[in-house]
Amino acid sequence: MERTHKQDPQAATERKEPRTGADLLVESLINEGVETLFGYPGGAALPIFDALYKAQNAFDQILARHEQGSIHAAEGYARVSGKPGVVVATSGPGATNLVTGIADAMIDSLPMIIITGQVAQGVIGTDAFQEVDVMGVTTPITKHNYQVRDVKQLPRIIREAFHIATTGRPGPVLIDMPKDISGEIIEESFSPNIELDLPGYQPNTKPNPLQTKKLADAISNAKKPVLLTGAGILFAKASEEVLEFAEKYSIPVTSTLLGLGAFPGNHPLFMGMAGMHGTYTANTALYECDLLINIGARFDDRLTGKLSSFAPNATVAHIDIDPAEIGKNVPADIPIVGDAKAALIRLLTHEITQPEHDDWLVRIHENKENFPLWFNKPDQDMIGQWVIKQVHEATDGNAIVTTDVGQHQMWTAQFYTFNKPDKWVSSGGLGTMGFGFPAAIGAQLAKPDETVVAIVGDGGFQMTLQELSILQEKGLPVKVIIVNNQALGMVRQWQEKFYSERYSQSIFSIQPDFVKLAESYNVKGLQVKTQEEFIKAIPEIFDYEGPVVVDARVLQQENVFPMIAPGTGLNEMIGVKP
Amino acid sequence: MKRIITATVRNRSGVLNRVTSLLQRRQFNIESISVGRTETEGMSKMTFVVDVEDFQKLEQVTKQLNKQIDVIKVSDITDKAIVARELALIKIVSNSQLRAEVQGIIEPFRASIIDVSKDSLSIQVTGKPEKIEALIELLRPYGIKELARTGVTAFARGQQPSIQDGSSYSSLLG
Ligand SMILES: Cc1ncc(C[n+]2csc(CCOP(=O)(O)OP(=O)(O)O)c2C)c(N)n1
């Protein structure tokens, strides 16, 4: 065997090639089961990219056109696959281009592994070429971060990083790799079976039975109970349990923005999303309830509105895997630290008397009847809400839908009814424009057989549209629907309502030709201007096997309603009725 | 209200940065931080004196600290029987005539003169922060040229009184 290799010059050089820190990194990633890797090369990361070249067949490697595209794609991948998204970038500008995505993943609890190249240890701290203090920059926006100082520690660090990123409350973990570490020749072999040594990190997944008992008693006595479902339920894969629990005790359910799909959107007990652009029924129920059961939501201020008007008369039970979330914004009367699924399973074992709350159910039913979400229906022109409804019908509500940030995002949350978990990908906590389209790419990579629709604004799409390249490169059939109002719609809405129609920098006077733009990336482009045109285009969009960009021209003046204006409470919604 | 919180942390790179960055970002008011090694190899102890509005905010401080991967244990020891000490170095304006007078002032504080020059005196004092405060006030009229304080370091006494007060705010993990 050895002899034949020697005769092959190619093989011979390969064999002589010594093993480096970067090779060890790649082996560790393979060992962790990484299949898809989002990378963007550069000087300080070259040893890593060389090692990736050698291991070409080990991963599906995706080259986005901007590091921000890489990380949002990795976030979309993580959200729908449940596996960590893995990103590799170079030092300095490569790393800083990731910052928005890292912050986004942190606040929305997405499991991510970010590997950044760093200048060689000998010049760290000298303002070397492409040096940035990535540890300093990312400390507040990572669950944890590491700078590798000793190549022998690398396998342990990778093991720990994956463990930390994917357990407890998931989050991004960054590993900064100085170039000399990546390039260091290593002789030893390292065992992939590393014992974790993290005494300070012990996520508490098992809820305290005394506390769940307390909640059980509170349910028995509740006259007006409400269940609030957050994304924590999706991470815990607890949708079935939530459904069983809510049905068993007939508890009306509302959801946070990111929790949509955890509970079936078409269920009679579902009241719609709560919060700034939530339904009247859900927000009123939160205002009036006497028992609020929050499972896996963090009481974000866009959900609560003015805190003094948030569930003012309720006993608040809060179930969360992250103890620091409990009592952070809203004091909890019944704090339960633990995994949402474990907590629900536990709750289902307690003896609970069916709460006597028929009046409450009737009231909620009436509110749903009398105050549904609404929108104006112009004759021919399109508006965003109508477009979303069409997309919902065309996909039978089964697509994976990603959005960017703005009006179209809220309309999607309102009018695309999510009945199943893990179909909804949006930037909640950070509200990151530019997120939606690359996130759809990641989602499609994770679920190649599902229909993935990116609903984006004309503003946000222009922040990351260069990633159209990936659609062509990887043959991804993502459907991009631009809800094009020729404006930064949500900003325009706020300026209209709260700044006396002073439209400062929110109207686009010039737009690219999105059809030509798509075509230049070898992606099918369509422009639709009327309802009729849109309906006609539906088969062209959804029966077509490849990617499509649809420039859907909608009326500029349309606003998102209903709304809780900033600084006001759940009981002060405006735009509840047309 | 002022609280004394201790955190046992692993000596891994970046841990101090993580902790201080966290406190700053969450707008926790820190009066002092002191850090040093402990009896256990690889472990350090941080002592924070924080000024917080209420118990809810205090609970957030301890929980956020606890969330850090390299933080092993966080305790609010304010209501316990504790030993808390600080070291201060105080350089004051002085001359040979004043030296005896200063000596008289610092003696009850069991402070000591550790450096003498033609026109200044340096004094070292250890003790509870209030004691240090009191000495500084007494020395202020002489003119303080330089002042350096370490911040409080503290731990619980070996023996705790059997009845604990009901500071049950941090019992959520139970
Ligand atoms: C990176 C970033 N910059 C600015 C904002 C502030 N912002 C929130 S919504 C919005 C307008 C979005 O406009 P568009 O993408 O066209 O969507 P629309 O609201 O019109 O649906 C802006 C500028 C943001 N969320 N993210």
Automatic annotation (TrEMBL), chain A:
One of its GO terms (molecular function) is acetolactate synthase activity. The keyword Metal-binding applies. Keywords: Amino-acid biosynthesis, Branched-chain amino acid biosynthesis, Magnesium, Metal-binding, Thiamine pyrophosphate, Transferase. Residues 19-135 form the Thiamine pyrophosphate enzyme N-terminal TPP-binding domain. Pathway: Amino-acid biosynthesis; L-valine biosynthesis; L-valine from pyruvate: step 1/4; Amino-acid biosynthesis; L-isoleucine biosynthesis; L-isoleucine from 2-oxobutanoate: step 1/4. InterPro entries: Acetolactate_synth_lsu, AHAS_TPP, DHS-like_NAD/FAD-binding_dom, THDP-binding, Thiamin_PyroP_enz_cen_dom, Thiamin_PyroP_enz_TPP-bd_dom, TPP-bd_CS, TPP_enz. Its cofactor is Mg(2+); thiamine diphosphate. This is Acetolactate synthase. The lineage of its organism: Bacteria, Bacillati, Bacillota, Bacilli, Bacillales. The gene is ilvB.
TrEMBL record, chain B:
Its EC number is 2.2.1.6. Residues 4-79 form the ACT domain. It catalyses: 2 pyruvate + H(+) = (2S)-2-acetolactate + CO2. SUPFAM superfamilies: ACT-like (SSF55021). InterPro entries: Acetalactate_synth_ssu, Acetolactate_synth/TF_NikR_C, Acetolactate_synth_ssu_C, ACT-like_dom_sf, ACT_dom, AHAS_ACT, AHAS_small-like_ACT. The keyword Transport does not apply. It comes from the Bacteria. CDD domains: ACT_AHAS. Pathway: Amino-acid biosynthesis; L-valine biosynthesis; L-valine from pyruvate: step 1/4; Amino-acid biosynthesis; L-isoleucine biosynthesis; L-isoleucine from 2-oxobutanoate: step 1/4. One of its GO terms (molecular function) is acetolactate synthase activity. The keyword Amino-acid biosynthesis applies. Keywords: Amino-acid biosynthesis, Branched-chain amino acid biosynthesis, Transferase. Belongs to the acetolactate synthase small subunit family. PANTHER family: ACETOLACTATE SYNTHASE SMALL SUBUNIT, ACETOLACTATE SYNTHASE SMALL SUBUNIT 1, CHLOROPLASTIC. Catalyzes the conversion of 2 pyruvate molecules into acetolactate in the first common step of the biosynthetic pathway of the branched-amino acids such as leucine, isoleucine, and valine. Dimer of large and small chains. NCBIfam families: acolac_sm, PRK11895.1. This is Acetolactate synthase small subunit. It comes from Gracilibacillus salinarum. The lineage of its organism: Bacteria, Bacillati, Bacillota, Bacilli, Bacillales.
